[in-house]
Design a protein that fits this description.
CATH topology of the largest domain: Vanillyl-alcohol Oxidase, Chain A, domain 3
Number of domains: 4
Domain FAD-binding PCMH-type: 48-226
CATH architecture of the largest domain: 3-Layer(aba) Sandwich
Radius of gyration: 23 Å
Distance between the termini: 22 Å
CATH class of the largest domain: Alpha Beta
InterPro entries: FAD-bd_oxidored_4_C, FAD-bd_PCMH, FAD-bd_PCMH-like_sf, FAD-bd_PCMH_sub2, FAD-linked_Oxase-like_C, FAD-linked_OxidoTrans_Type4, Oxid_FAD_bind_N, Vanillyl_alc_oxidase_C-sub2
Keywords: FAD, Flavoprotein, Oxidoreductase
Number of strands: 18
Strand order of the largest sheet: 15-12-14-13-17-18-16
CATH superfamily of the largest domain: FAD-linked oxidases, C-terminal domain
Helix content: 25-40%
Protein name: Glycolate oxidase
Largest sheet: 7 strands, antiparallel
Number of helices: 17
GO molecular function, one term: oxidoreductase activity
Structural class: alpha+beta
Shape: globular
Bound molecules: flavin-adenine dinucleotide
């Protein structure tokens, strides 16, 4: 992975820069000891590492603003960081950058049940947003599998999704407003506690902008009343393509389940060994969940199981109790951990039109032979968001490079069939150099012109999202 050479002038001024940061933050909020900064050297894309110049952990928007003012004046790059669970290397530092972590900013600032909103500091974890309102039977819908750890900050920056986003939408559909600090320290409010602010949809621009435009410190989120009930059905098939066709048919029928999750045999076997969820040993497994009153659930599941039967499932198991539902979800929720027990893995995140699922699964299976690496497929099939997990051995010379080449081919295939490079994990450094597969130079230029407006010196989250060759002229001009 190519990264720009660190700016030696910044490296040589480290002590001075850290001293200035210490003047605007409490002592425990500035970390510059090389042993301690190692904690920030990577995110969940652990194949790439680089300790930052320093890390700062502010507690308020005002402190974030003060940090950014210092870094702006010193021309020091800043990498915003939530919980560091990005699978795209989105929060990986460069050696001349300050990590700005919002982990200490985790307060609930306001809860308004009448208007169904909650305002939080963005370091709050995703799951604890629901935790803050569950006593009153409310919840926050976007549910990344990493929700126990990941922060709302990263969710907004990556426009994260999750298993239940088929029905409720992803982060952008549940975000009402943000407080954001610009690179020069100016604090701006975008959106608010109401639908659709006047003027341009800047909130739509901020959500998914991967820390390129500003540091989001507070967020107003939509909360929803919990559904009366939910029930999953587990379906096993002896063929990946047939399972893919079944997903396509369910969506085509107009039913909107809350989730349709897919796992293939390597994932099923791994999770069975890891979690013992009682899954059948078959080629492909679907978990389809619907919500509503008992009568609504019965009616939807009747139609869904009728569609499944036309595809000759080897197993069709409707949950009969809360325990059975938990068991059906147990394997899916353990899938990443289970695959990680077998070997190192790289988790991809392309999207495709649902109708292309059978074809894409077949091509991936053919490619495993070409590249000699195994793949487990586990993903949000309802909205065509694929997560092939490519297994490789980080200690075996050449395996990582082979894995990257394989991953690139899968993502190119997603674009080729009408999908895109990323569904929910973002571009980061992982897909940065593939952006030219999806966008021509003119498209990229327009995207970079947006960054020029928000961050004219190109100091925020360097070397991410835009191919280095495409952004080189701008980066040099900004120095
Ligand atoms: C096991 C596992 C399962 C996962 N499952 C899912 C899933 O189901 N769905 C999904 O969408 N993702 C998933 N992810 C990916 C990851 O959890 C999400 O991308 C998440 O939103 C990252 O949040 P974070 O707080 O950890 O962000 P970080 O990793 O810290 O940062 C991610 C990006 O956000 C930017 N950023 C961070 N804070 C700010 C801020 N305050 N202002 C502006 N930009 C900021 C960073 O610069 C970086 O570009 C998974 C990851 C793991 C490890």
């Amino acid at each position: 992975m190519d990264m720009p050479e660190p700016n030696s002038a910044i490296l040589s001024r480290k002590a001075e820069i850290v001293a200035r940061l210490r003047r605007v933050l409490p002592p425990s909020a500035v970390i510059d000891d090389p042993v301690e900064t190692r904690a920030y050297e990577c995110d969940a894309l652990t194949a790439y590492r680089c300790p930052p110049l320093a890390a700062v952990l502010p507690s308020t928007t005002e402190e974030v603003s003060a940090v950014l003012r210092v870094c702006h004046e010193e021309r020091v790059p800043v990498v915003p960081r939530g919980a560091g669970t990005s699978l795209a290397g989105g929060s990986m530092p460069t050696a001349d950058a300050v990590i700005l972590g919002v982990a200490r900013m985790n307060d609930v600032l306001e809860t308004d049940y009448d208007n169904r909103i909650i305002r939080v500091q963005t370091g709050r974890t995703n799951l604890s947003v629901s935790g803050a309102v569950e006593e009153n039977d409310f919840f926050y819908a976007p549910d990344p599998s990493s929700q126990l750890a990941c922060a709302i900050a990263g969710n907004i920056a990556m426009n994260s999704g999750g298993a239940h986003c088929l029905k409720y939408g992803v982060t952008t559909n549940n975000l009402m407003g943000v407080t954001m600090v610009m690179m020069d320290g100016e604090v701006v409010e975008i959106g608010g506690a109401h639908l659709d602010a006047g003027g341009l949809d800047l909130l739509g621009l901020i959500c998914g902008s991967e820390g390129q435009l500003g540091v989001v410190t507070e967020a107003t989120l939509r909360i929803l009343r919990k559904p009366e009930g939910a029930r999953p059905v587990l379906m096993g098939f002896d063929d990946n393509e047939v399972a893919g066709q079944c997903v396509s048919d369910i969506i085509k029928s107009g039913i909107l389940p809350v989730a349709i999750e897919f796992m293939d045999r390597p994932c099923i076997r791994a999770t069975e060994a890891f979690a013992g969820a009682g899954y059948p040993d078959c080629e492909a497994l679907l978990i389809v969940e619907v919500e509503g009153s008992d009568a609504e659930i019965d009616a939807q599941l009747q139609r869904i199981t009728a569609i499944a039967r036309t595809h000759n499932p080897v197993e069709l198991r409707e949950s009969g109790s809360a325990e059975e539902s938990a068991k059906i979800w147990l394997g899916r929720k353990s899938a990443f951990g289970a695959m990680g027990q077998i070997n190192d893995y790289m988790c991809l995140d392309g999207t495709i039109p649902v109708s292309q699922l059978p074809y894409v699964l077949r091509r991936i299976s053919e490619m495993t032979k070409e590249f000699g690496l195994d793949v487990g497929n586990v993903f949000h099939a309802g909205d065509g968001n694929m997560h092939p997990l490519i297994l490789f051995d980080a200690n075996k010379p050449g395996d990582l490079e082979k894995c990257e080449a394989f991953g690139a081919e899968i993502l190119k295939l997603c674009v080729e069939v009408g999908g895109c490079l990323t569904g929910e994990h973002g571009v980061g450094i992982e897909k940065r150099d593939l952006m030219t597969t999806q966008y021509d130079p003119g498209d990229l230029d327009i995207q970079m012109a947006v960054k020029d407006v928000f961050d004219p010196q190109w100091l925020l989250n360097p070397a991410k999202v835009f191919p280095l060759a495409s952004s080189e002229a701008r980066r040099i001009a900004a120095e």
